[in-house]
């Protein structure tokens, strides 16, 4: 199942409320587009929670079959594909961070 949150907070502009610069595209519009993409191309038994406007909480506790994504860009599709293929886990991010030379 791909479930889109349609609560009141999802009706806000995807850019947030900005004086004279709020987007007409709503958070629910982005969620619906993403859900349609997932349904079309990815059969999978995992849960991905994408918080387009991340805050301090998540909808599901992170574990091997649950991925929480905060924010949205084109890279989200790549991250979800890696997760669906079983090539992404919590240690993945630690490994990437450790590769950064200071």
Number of helical segments with 4 or more residues: 3
Protein structure class: alpha+beta
Order of helices and strands: HEEHH
- Tell me the β content: 5-15%
For the report, how would you describe the main beta sheet? 2 strands, parallel
Low-pLDDT sequence parts: none
Q: Order of strands across the widest beta sheet?
A: 1-2
State the shape. Answer: globular
The overall pLDDT, averaged over residues, is 83
Give the end-to-end Cα distance, rounded to a whole number of Å.
Answer: 43 Å
Q: What percent of the residues sit in helical stretches (DSSP H or I)?
A: 25-40%
Count the E strands.
Answer: 2
Task: Please give the radius of gyration in angstroms.
Answer: 15 Å
How would you characterize this protein structure?
By secondary structure, this protein is α+β, with helices and mostly antiparallel strands. Helix content is 33%, strand content 10%. The protein contains 3 helices and 2 strands, in the order αββαα. A two-stranded parallel sheet has the order 1-2. The radius of gyration is 15 Å and the shape is globular. The mean pLDDT is 83.
């Amino acid at each position: 199942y791909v479930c889109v949150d349609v609560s009141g907070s999802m009706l806000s502009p995807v850019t947030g409320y900005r004086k004279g610069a709020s987007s007409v595209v709503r958070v629910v519009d982005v969620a619906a587009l993403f859900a349609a993409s997932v349904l079309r191309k990815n059969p999978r038994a995992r849960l991905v929670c994408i918080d387009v406007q991340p805050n301090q909480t998540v909808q599901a506790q992170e574990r091997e079959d649950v991925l929480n994504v905060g924010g949205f860009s084109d890279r989200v599709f790549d991250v979800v594909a890696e997760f669906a293929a079983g090539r992404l886990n919590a240690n993945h991010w630690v490994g990437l961070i450790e590769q950064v030379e200071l």
